[in-house]
Specification:
By secondary structure, the chain is of the alpha/beta class. 44% of the residues lie in helices and 19% in strands. It folds into 4 domains: 111 residues, no CATH class; 288 residues, no CATH class; 215 residues, Alpha-Beta Plaits; 73 residues, no CATH class. It is built from 23 helices and 28 strands.
């Protein structure tokens, strides 16, 4: 993190968060974030809904299409049904001993069947004494404006609601009501309102315990169910704790006195029964037969009845579904009261605290990080943290605003980024743009911090260099040219870009610096501009990863649907390139003192490396083909720096490469020891024994050892190379004077 001139950013680091916080706060107070917050909350509801168990004390009876079809077929009923059907339901539920029977239906008109049809229903309800009928309040409809005086229905006696009573009314306009017909109204044990209050986007996320009408606190359907089953009428609002206290229950409410519901999935997650099945069971019980659905299933349960056939049930929008039965809101309210698991709003101070935290964190990170990638990453982490906190809070029963802090974080990120862009100057932007494609981030930051680094010159550092090259790439190039004609160069570039991107990303991920590309070759170095003792290990780790990426890349380009596959397959069949190795990379690595710096002219320069140690790395890349290795050769100097624990290696001969007279011991780098398979570790141990015998001129033992390795892995061409050499020495052994431990003098690069 570059903090070269922190004093210059003290003022913006204070001013930007303050301005962003103020702007976000004003927008929040004017409800600008409400819509997005609602949608994010709905996602939380849907995410967790099915993980909560609905109450077993609630049963839902649905008059569905199957019930209508059965009634038309078996009883000759057309729609609407006679009220006697609901009388049958009432008596059957009463027989089972249900705590209450709630009708989420407005029976505001007399039955079309006339006669004593309404009377039958009223008589059954009166005999049961626990039936709740629905009433609807509205500022648009309803002809009744006063509460019926006789009989007295159970109403709430509220206390302490003065500060939030407006949340229980429908406004200052005229409020009308639709009551059940007189017979049903008089025989109902209670009247419960079905009036719901959606949020500003029309979605029902909350419910009132009661609604104020004509100076009376009329319970909702869910509360009415509890009233007729014995709950008291006294309710008190605890303003300090923001909760309603009723008959030993605690019901949290929002700032307007409404309860935020914890939805537990679709309505059918409650115990649902079909009205047709109830009537069939009632018939069988009346005949003395055993019903499929005995009345005992209703014992000590609250029963809700509602229409569920297409076109009949009232529709409302909830976080669960945009088309949701209105009865589900009342059922959920009763469930939450019984379970005591409402959702609560977090205190105001918590909202502002999370906003301040998000804004300050992002502002400081963006202003002082010095890197856009780090700023973006930090922004993503903060956003993920806010989202995770909101999800965890919901699961714990709290509605923690998510969009407000995210909006503040976004405002801080944009403001800080714009400020950095405006103040860092054109030189910094130019440097990042010009050098970001091939220099490591450390180099770029060093140049930005001190532009004098762009001057010519270099210094000697202990580093590691890596050279790569694709075997027989000229043949691949020619094959693409022949296959695609004038489009051949473009396809060649596409293939090269694919390969070089994969390999370069690995180098940069291991803190290396790309020196240059030479056709299909990559030259890179480790240990500069930021010195590290781990440069040799970083280079070796990158090489191993490059070979593994090469195998994965081979699988992709040799896919039959790939455009390069036909050309490469043709070259394989002609034995120009090896099967399964179309992009076979040879890699050479050496470590030592190298000169690194900006070299060239004052108008055109390159941050590069030079020196004998660099030349040796270049030579080792080509030596791979002399020994038919798996692709990675390192020098004894690199071997000394990486130690024995991290990598799997096997020794090869000492060589004198072109231009370097001192023999250098070579090692083939096979894999990372931590991820190497057991068979590879065993083969490496066997190689040590065979190679020791080879250097001691025990060629028969060496031959047997290399032969054993080859039997385990027929693709080990290096073992085959030494096995053939041992055969020759067995026939014509070198004398002691001629043998110098097997130093190979290589005459070509």
């Amino acid at each position: 993190m570059a903090l070269k001139k922190p004093l210059k950013k003290i003022i913006p680091s204070l001013l930007i968060p303050l301005l962003v916080f103020t702007a976000a706060g004003i927008l929040h107070l004017f409800h600008v974030f409400d819509y997005l917050e609602y949608k994010s909350y709905d996602f939380r509801v849907r995410l967790f809904a099915d993980s909560y168990k609905p109450s077993d004390d609630i049963i839902v009876i649905l008059l569905d299409q199957d019930s209508i079809d059965w009634a038309g077929r078996e009883r000759g009923w057309s729609w609407p049904w006679p009220r006697s059907a609901y009388a049958e339901l009432t008596r059957y539920v009463q027989t089972g001993g249900a705590k209450s029977l709630v009708f989420d239906v407005l029976f505001s008109e007399p039955s079309i069947y006339r006669g004593d049809d309404d009377g039958a229903f009223a008589e059954a309800a009166d005999g049961y004494g626990r039936v709740v009928q629905a009433v609807f309040f509205s500022t648009q409809t309803g002809s009744v404006e006063t509460w019926p005086g006789d009989p007295q229905k159970p109403l709430f006696n509220p206390a302490g609601f003065e500060s939030i009573i407006s949340g229980y009314s429908l406004g200052k306009d005229r409020v009308g009501a639709q009551f059940p017909i007189a017979e049903l109204e008089k025989t109902a044990a209670a009247l419960g309102t079905v009036t719901n209050a959606g949020d500003s986007d029309g979605v029902n996320r909350r419910a009132r315990l009661f609604t104020s009408f004509d100076g009376r606190a009329v319970p909702g359907l869910s509360a009415a169910a509890l009233l007729v089953s014995g709950s008291g009428r006294e309710v008190r609002y605890n303003e300090k704790k923001r909760q309603i206290e009723w008959d030993g229950r605690v019901i949290p409410v929002d700032r307007n006195g409404r309860s935020i519901l914890r939805f537990k999935g679709a309505l059918n997650r409650y115990i649902p029964y079909s009205m047709g099945d109830i009537l069939i069971s009632a018939e069988r019980l009346a005949r003395g037969e055993k019903p499929d659905l005995g009345p005992e299933v209703f014992a000590d349960r609250h029963v809700f009845f509602g229409f569920y056939a297409p076109g009949l049930f009232d529709i409302c929008s909830t976080p669960i579904e945009s088309v949701y039965p209105g009865m589900g809101v009342h059922v959920t309210m009763l469930d939450n009261i019984l379970s005591g698991d409402f959702i609560q709003e977090v205190p105001c101070w918590a909202e502002w605290l999370i906003l301040v935290t998000a804004v300050l964190t992002i502002s400081i990170l963006v202003l002082f990080s010095g890197r856009l990638a780090l700023s973006v990453g930090g922004f993503a982490v903060v956003c993920a943290g806010v989202a995770a906190s909101a999800l965890a809070a919901y699961n714990a029963g709290w509605w923690l605003p998510m969009v407000l802090p995210l909006g503040g974080a976004l405002g801080a990120f944009v403001s800080g980024t714009v400020y950095n862009y405006a103040t860092e100057g054109s030189q910094k932007r130019y440097i990042k743009s010009a050098f970001g494609q091939y220099l490591s981030p450390e180099v770029i930051e060093q140049i930005i911090a001190d532009p004098s680094n762009l001057e010519l010159g270099g210094k000697s550092m202990d580093m590691s260099a890596i050279f790569t090259d694709i075997q027989r790439f000229s043949s691949i190039s020619e094959g693409l040219q022949n296959a695609y004609g004038k489009d051949g160069p473009r396809e060649l570039v596409n293939l090269l870009n694919l390969y070089l991107t994969e390999m370069s990303n690995i180098v940069l991920a291991n803190r290396g610096t790309i020196d240059k590309f030479e056709g299909d070759a990559i030259i890179a170095f480790f240990g500069a501009p930021v010195p590290t003792d781990r440069h040799a290990a970083m280079a070796c780790r990158a090489a191993v990863q490059m070979k593994k990426a090469e195998a994965e890349l081979t699988g992709r380009i040799m896919d039959k649907t790939g455009r390069f596959c036909p050309v490469l397959q043709d070259l394989i069949e002609k034995r120009v390139i090896r099967p399964n190795r179309p992009l076979y990379t040879r890699i050479g690595i050496n470590s030592g003192e190298m000169v690194v710096g900006n070299m060239g002219t004052s108008s055109k320069m390159n941050y590069t490396i030079m020196g004998n140690a660099v030349n040796l790395a270049a030579r080792l890349e080509g030596v791979n083909k002399q020994y038919d290795t798996g692709g990675i050769l390192i020098s004894e100097y690199t071997r000394e720096k990486i130690g024995d624990d991290e990598f799997v290696l096997r020794p090869l001969s000492r060589v004198r490469v072109v231009g370097i007279h001192t023999p250098v011991r070579l090692y083939e780098l096979l894999d990372l020891r931590a991820s190497a398979p057991t068979r590879l570790l065993e083969a490496a141990a066997s190689w040590e024994d065979a190679f020791r015998a080879y250097e001691n001129r025990d060629f028969a033992s060496a031959l047997a050892g290399f032969d054993g390795i080859l039997r385990q892995d027929s693709g080990d061409l290096t073992a085959r190379f030494y096995m053939n050499r041992c055969r020759g020495y067995c026939k014509a052994p070198p004398s002691g004077a001629e043998w110098d431990g097997g130093v190979d003098n290589l005459s070509s690069k």
